[in-house]
């Protein structure tokens, strides 16, 4: 699987998602605030417009009371002359709504209701077809069924509203951009701290039990988490070291006496006078060999789990190691009339310990031959997948149930509860330890072609120059 990019990891962090949620809440609050500001400002400007129109109406009404229709017409002309390009709208019309005086050249179609406020669309004051704009006015009916229209156009208000909308839009955009940038920066800092923890965890899982999570001395949440984890790791390391020392001590202390006992039994067998004595001595030697094999396997597992073998890592031709192991076990397979089929690639060079890798391959082949019935088939293939090399051993034996596949990778675990078959339950445990030591992985699956087990050992290769 291709590792996610730094940007992808950043977008998937919990911190960034929390920042996005807060940004969404904050953006919604800003939209509501800006909407309220816009609604309040627009309402205030509309009220100011109505107040200005009302003021014009009061002044014209006074002129009409004092000078009648002629005085009203004169007052309208004077007001237009004072501000010919202004926003004020005046129109005095006869009973047929034909214009008498004003700065509109026709009576608006919308002005049909009397003594009411109305809004209508204008293009300009001279009848030319220009940009449309809205106007607001009030229609009055005078004595003699004359009509008076007093109002203001909305161009100034529309321009102001447009400026407000643009300002609010840019303000929201800048807020979102700064929020995203701040969230990304905050998440990046958290991601770097978490990456330190993850990297240290991977190194510890790889066998370097001495690694500890770095802290920065700020006593923040991450430092407290790292401190607590380091205390836990110290405790775990102490417990594992104690168990390993006991296991290694038992293996070392008992291996030498067992070796001496075996040698003496061998000498006794050679001097045995009757067949029964030699048979019993041979059985004792076989039991001693099995005990020695168990202790040797425990010591090799301890060596792999301790990580000490990394100091002697060197380039290893994994294909050659596999070929040697297959040649070693081929006669054993032939004795059981088993077909041992191999398919290897060249140039699969890994960085590791040749002895431990050979032992891991030997354990896989030994298990496959042991549990595959006579006349069965064993396939050994070596393939490349990206930067990894994959060794797969497929047999036609009874296989391993899915629920037991993780369990069999532990020490002394055997599916044969009666333990009637030879073995100590350390074979796959050693292979799993060697895989972890070499930054690889061990996977168990069903034989894709039928009954049986497929064991895959994946190891990283050395990049080609």
Counting DSSP H or I runs of 4 or more residues, the number of helices is 8
CATH class categorisation of the domain at 310-460: Alpha Beta
Which word captures the global form?
rod-shaped
Radius of gyration, rounded?
46 Å
**Topology order in helix (H) and strand (E) letters:** HHEEEEEHHHEHEEHEEHEE
C-alpha end-to-end distance = 23 Å
Portion of residues in helices? 55-70%
| Uncertain parts | 125-129
Please name the CATH topology of the domain at 310-460: Heat Shock Protein 90
Largest sheet descriptor? 5 strands, antiparallel
The chain-level mean pLDDT equals 79
Q: Strands of the biggest beta sheet: in what spatial order?
A: 2-1-5-4-3
CATH superfamily of the domain at 310-460: Histidine kinase-like ATPase, C-terminal domain
User: What is the percentage of strand-forming residues?
Assistant: 15-25%
Class by SSE composition:
alpha+beta
What's the β-strand tally? 12
Label the CATH architecture of the domain at 310-460: 2-Layer Sandwich
Present the secondary structure layout.
Layout: H1 6-11, H2 14-82, E1 88-93, E2 99-102, E3 117-122, E4 133-141, E5 147-153, H3 155-205, H4 221-271, H5 275-306, E6 314-317, H6 318-335, E7 339-343, E8 349-352, H7 354-371, E9 377-385, E10 388-395, H8 427-437, E11 441-446, E12 453-460
Helix pairs in contact: 2-3, 4-5, 5-8, 6-7, 7-8
Give a quick summary of the entry.
With 465 residues, the chain is α+β, with helices and mostly antiparallel strands. Among the domains are: 206-306, Helix Hairpins, CATH 1.10.287.130; 310-460, Histidine kinase-like ATPase, C-terminal domain (Heat Shock Protein 90), CATH 3.30.565.10. It has 8 helices and 12 strands.
């Amino acid at each position: 699987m291709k590792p996610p990019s730094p940007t992808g990891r950043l977008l998937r962090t919990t911190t960034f998602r929390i920042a996005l949620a807060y940004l969404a809440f904050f953006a919604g609050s800003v939209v509501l605030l800006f909407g309220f500001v816009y609604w309040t400002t627009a309402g205030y400007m509309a009220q100011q417009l109505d107040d200005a129109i009302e003021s014009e109406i009061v002044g014209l009404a006074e002129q009409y009371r004092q000078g009648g229709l002629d005085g009203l017409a004169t007052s309208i002309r004077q007001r237009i002359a004072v501000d010919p390009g202004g926003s004020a709208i005046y129109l005095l019309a006869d009973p047929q709504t034909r214009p008498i005086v004003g700065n509109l050249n026709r009576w608006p179609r919308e002005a049909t209701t009397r003594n009411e406020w109305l809004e209508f669309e204008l293009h300009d004051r001279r009848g030319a077809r220009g940009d449309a704009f809205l106007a607001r006015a009030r229609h009055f009916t005078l004595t003699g069924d004359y009509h008076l229209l007093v109002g203001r156009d909305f161009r100034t208000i529309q321009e102001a509203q447009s400026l407000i909308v643009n300002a609010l839009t840019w303000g929201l955009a800048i807020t979102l951009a700064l929020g995203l940038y701040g969230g990304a920066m905050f998440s990046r800092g958290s991601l770097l701290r978490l990456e330190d923890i993850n990297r240290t965890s991977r190194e510890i899982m790889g066998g370097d039990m001495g690694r500890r999570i770095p802290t920065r001395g700020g006593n923040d949440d991450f430092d407290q988490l790292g401190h607590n984890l380091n205390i836990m790791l110290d405790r775990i390391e102490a417990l594992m070291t104690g168990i390993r020392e006991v296991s290694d001590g038992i293996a070392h202390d008992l291996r030498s006496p067992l070796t001496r006992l075996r040698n003496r039994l061998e000498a006794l067998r050679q001097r045995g006078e009757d067949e029964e004595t030699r048979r019993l001595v041979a059985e004792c030697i076989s039991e001693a060999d099995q005990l020695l094999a168990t202790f040797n396997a425990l010591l090799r597992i301890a060596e792999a789990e301790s990580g000490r073998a990394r100091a002697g890592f060197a380039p290893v031709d994994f294909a050659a190691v596999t070929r040697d192991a297959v040649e070693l076990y081929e006669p054993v397979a032939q004795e059981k009339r088993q077909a041992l089929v191999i398919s290897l690639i060249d140039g699969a060079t890994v960085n590791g310990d040749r002895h431990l890798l050979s032992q891991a391959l030997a354990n896989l082949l030994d298990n496959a031959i042991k549990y595959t019935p006579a006349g069965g088939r064993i396939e050994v293939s070596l393939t490349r997948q990206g930067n990894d090399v994959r060794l797969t051993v497929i047999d036609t034996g009874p296989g391993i149930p899915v629920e037991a596949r993780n369990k069999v990778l532990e020490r002394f675990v055997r599916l044969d509860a009666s333990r009637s078959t030879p073995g100590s339950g350390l074979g796959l445990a050693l292979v799993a330890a060697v895989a972890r030591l070499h930054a690889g992985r061990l996977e168990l699956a069903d034989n894709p072609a039928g009954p049986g087990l497929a064991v895959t050992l994946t190891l990283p290769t050395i990049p080609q120059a």
